[in-house]
Specification:
Keywords: Membrane, Transmembrane, Transmembrane helix. By secondary structure, the protein is an alpha+beta fold. Among the domains are: 37-164, no CATH class; 697-838, no CATH class. 17% of the residues lie in helices and 52% in strands. The protein has 14 helices and 44 strands. The chain has a 44-stranded mixed sheet that branches. A hairpin with a 4-residue loop joins strand 41 and strand 42. It is rod-shaped.
């Protein structure tokens, strides 16, 4: 056999041996993969893993040609006694060091996990420990040395969250004397359970799952030294019904303390930044907030708390705050939340009242809110102060320059709103309100307020006021204002402009008390110097209109007290008394002309159905006048009485444009009643007397003087007659605007005039009969007439029972402005021989 042939045969032999070995090896590997290694081999692998602190058991250990060893149904335990299970996997791949394995040594380098499901108890060794179930676990665990493991790219899914874990952990030899605290373990179990329940409140779109990256490094023998860092991101995340976008969370977890170094999200284009921590054992934590999100919406949807009820922010709200919290639990189902910080909000409203900006420091304690250093800017004013909301009551102490309309959301009474609406302000107005009080948070119209106010340059009921101040106590039922001072602005008041009076007047009052339910106002101790009409216009505009007819040249001194009521019918208890004393002149329109009154005093009493002007007195026409007047506004009915003494005819003549009345005085009285401005409704009675005047200079009797002249001429003359008829008097009655008199009389030493008749002011006509009896030298003037009058004399004697001489009768008819006087046959007087015409007149005595 040649050498070459031997070589060929050896090559074939060795090839067969190699093939046989390969086939045997493959067969052995297949067998080992299918049947698994021996128990001794499995125990050796488990023992090797103990060197890394991994205490495991598994049902089946097989060999994979490419991947290495595969352990099936592997269970992880806390200690080598393998009594407390901490994790369970369906299968893992174990990579060993092949070079050492060839030398007979087993060295595990890596454990690979593919599509595994891991159930990890959070508290090891406890049957009731909450468990985290992680699905689709993929990655590798590197075993670098005894009691040391690390991972790279280990991923899985927890409740839809993609979780990535990188860790580097090692363990020293466990301390033999370490005994876990049973109570601490029990608390951790409760805390973890509550934390996992809170996680159920979160949800997100299936197509946009959040991602959680976890980094763990440290000595497991010293849990306090283990660093657990995490980063959580989500494009969309919902807590209950509150959506968050662009969520970013970064922090760490050390034992039971979870820390949020950074938590940011946006909501409706507003951003929130938060740092916080959570003690899982205590279920509590702290936080720091910097946010522009809508805090009311956030508090309601996230924490179930209604805060700042009634506020509605349309603009930006910025909050910077620190706080602490205690999460709800089975034993305490309510959130315990405490916050302190600052808030700034623009363009918001409170129950319809618009506010431009709000700045405040605040403190929140489980529904109790304390706002300090409040600054509220409104286009018409500002409010500063503090507010406490506690036990459904709002307590406040503020200083405000806001107008009354801003407070309308707090006011239930329509009458109070109506009254406050009468306040008008402009660019020159100034309001300084110091207010303290409480408000019912459930019903903001249930409130009370007390304090003081100073207001300048405003008007009420169209009455300009330059200054007002007072102390007040307000509720939704009543309003009491005390120690009031008010200065009225008369710059544009027509009477001041006309008569050049002072530009202001000041009033003071002890109190004004409003009772909205009874619809009345009680005024106490109001007094000062002011035009009366503007004063009354504050409370009773209709009465003020009437007082405007009394044209005061100068503000009188007034006093006022009583009750003003705006109730109707029998509930109206109006009784207001206004007294006034005027040292200046008053112009009052009487019979279509203004008469001047001076040193006028009076008292106005306003009752539910009438206005009474009592104790009225005044100097006028160089004389004196007094009386009273009662008016019923509902039907314009009136009644009254005036008496006057020694009014000079010269002044009356000047007022009414009369001529010839240059001397004499008038004295008399008139008691009357009527309705409206119609003369036909005027009824009454009175008397009037002329002294030291000229009867025939009176326009009414002026035309009569020519008839008298024809009787006394030529032996007498008109001058003598006018000098004789200087006094007259009469009583009169008025019925439906018609004046009746039956005893007009004028007597001098030589002449007697008597008269009777009527004057109709409706039609402005008259019918008067005047009789004249004259004696002495004036009697001679009738001699030429006696022959003609003999038949009449006989008739006179028959009628009168005595011889009479010098008797004449005249009758006036026609228009009052131009009466027609003529001779008339002498008729017997109504009282016969007792008529004053037959009396011997006293010397220069006025008959009244």
């Amino acid at each position: 056999m040649s050498f070459r042939r031997l070589i060929i045969r050896l090559r074939v032999f060795f090839t067969l041996i190699v093939v046989a070995a390969i086939v045997s090896g493959v067969g052995a590997l297949v067998y080992l993969h299918e049947k698994g290694l021996t128990n001794a081999s499995a125990e050796r692998v488990a023992h090797e893993m103990e060197r890394y602190g991994l205490f495991v058991t598994f049902d089946h250990l097989s060999v994979h040609v490419l991947n290495g060893l595969t352990a099936n149904n592997i269970r992880f335990y806390r200690t080598k006694e393998r009594q407390i299970q901490i994790a369970e996997l369906p299968a893992i791949v174990i990579h060993v060091d092949k070079t050492k394995l060839m030398r007979g040594h087993l060295k595990i380098n890596t454990i690979s996990i593919t599509d595994a499901k891991i159930a990890v108890p959070l508290v090891r060794g406890e049957a009731d420990s909450p468990t985290i179930n992680i699905a689709n676990v993929n990655g590798a665990i590197d075993l670098r040395g005894n009691q040391s493991v690390s991972t790279t790219g280990l991923t899985g899914y927890y409740e839809g969250i993609k979780v990535s874990i990188n860790c580097n952990l090692w363990r020293d030899a466990p301390k033999e004397d370490f005994i876990p605290d049973p109570e601490a373990k029990k608390n951790r179990i409760a805390a973890y359970k509550n934390f996992l329940e809170q996680l159920k409140q979160w949800n997100w779109p299936a197509e946009s799952p959040p991602e959680l990256k976890i980094s763990i490094e440290g000595n497991l023998s010293e849990p306090s030294e283990v660093d657990f860092d995490y980063i959580f991101t989500a494009s969309i995340l919902n807590y209950k019904d509150y959506p968050m976008a662009d969520v970013y969370l970064e922090g760490d977890w050390n034992q039971s303390l979870v820390t949020l170094d950074k938590f940011e999200f946006t909501h409706q284009a507003k951003r929130c930044k938060l740092t916080a921590d959570l003690d899982l054992l205590k279920n509590s934590g702290r936080f720091k907030l910097d946010s522009s999100i809508h805090i009311q919406d956030f508090a309601l949807k996230v924490f179930g708390k209604k805060i700042l009820q009634g506020f509605s922010a349309a603009g930006k709200t910025q909050i910077a705050a620190n706080g602490s919290y205690l999460l709800p639990s089975a034993s305490n189902p309510k959130l315990d939340l405490k916050i302190i910080g600052k808030v700034s909000s623009s363009d918001f409203s409170f129950r319809g009242a618009s506010i431009d900006k709000l700045d405040s420091e605040f403190s929140w304690n489980n529904g109790d809110l304390y706002l300090d250093k409040i600054s509220v800017n409104h286009r018409r004013g500002k409010l500063t102060g503090r507010i406490i909301i506690k036990d459904q009551r709002i307590r406040y102490k503020v200083r405000s320059s806001l107008p009354a309309q801003v407070y309308f959301p707090f006011i239930k009474s329509d009458k109070l709103k109506t009254e406050l609406s009468k306040l008008a302000f402009d660019g020159q107005s100034f309001i300084d309100l110091h207010a303290n009080g409480t408000i019912n948070q459930d019903d903001v119209t249930d409130w009370e307020s007390h304090g003081n106010a100073e207001i300048r340059n405003f008007s009420y009921n169209d009455v300009p006021v330059s200054y007002a101040k007072g102390n007040y106590v307000l509720t939704r039922e009543t309003a009491d204002v005390k120690d009031i001072t008010a200065t009225f602005d008369y710059s544009d008041y027509p009477l001041r402009v006309t008569y050049k009076g002072p530009k202001s007047g000041t009033l003071t009052a002890k109190s004004l008390s409003f009772v909205w339910k009874n619809k009345n106002t009680t005024i106490t101790g109001l007094r000062g110097s002011a035009w009366p009409a503007p004063v009354l216009r504050l409370f009773a505009p209709s009465i003020a209109d009437h007082l405007e007819s009394y044209k005061f040249n100068y503000p009188p001194t007034v006093s006022c007290a009583g009750v003003v009521s705006w109730a109707k019918n029998e509930t109206n208890n109006m009784k207001l008394r206004v007294g006034f004393t005027s040292t200046g002149d008053i112009h009052y329109n009487f019979l279509k002309e203004d008469i001047t009154l001076s040193n006028t005093k009076g008292q106005v009493t306003i009752l539910p159905d009438k206005v009474q002007i009592n104790s009225l007195s005044s100097n006028t026409c160089a004389g004196y006048m007094s009386g009273y007047l009662h008016v019923k506004p509902s039907d314009s009915s009136y009644s009254g009485r005036f008496q006057w003494d020694s009014l000079k005819l010269r002044h009356i003549s000047k007022t009414y444009g009369l001529k010839g009345l240059n001397s004499g005085t008038l004295t008399g009285s008139f008691t009357f009643r009527g309705n409206g401005s119609k003369v036909s409704s005027l009824n009454g009675h009175g008397n009037i007397a002329l002294a030291n005047g000229d009867l025939f200079s009176v326009p009414l009797f002026g035309p009569l003087s020519s008839l008298v002249d024809s009787v006394v001429n030529p032996l007498s003359n008109q001058q003598i007659l006018h000098e004789q008829a200087r006094n007259f008097s009469c009583n009169f009655s008025t019925k439906n605007g018609i004046f009746h008199t039956r005893d007009l009389a004028s007597m001098t030493a030589s002449t007697t005039f008597t008269g009777e008749g009527w004057i109709d002011l409706n039609k402005e006509i008259l019918d008067l009969t005047i009789r004249m009896n004259f004696r002495g030298m004036m009697g001679l003037a009738e001699i030429p007439l006696k022959i003609i009058e003999l038949p009449l004399q006989a008739l006179k004697k028959i009628l009168t029972g005595k011889e009479v001489k010098g008797l004449k009768q005249f009758r006036g008819t026609g228009k009052i402005s131009k009466p027609n006087w003529r001779f008339a046959p002498f008729l017997p007087p109504r009282d016969g021989k007792d008529d004053p015409i037959f009396r011997k007149p006293p010397r220069a005595e006025l008959v009244k």
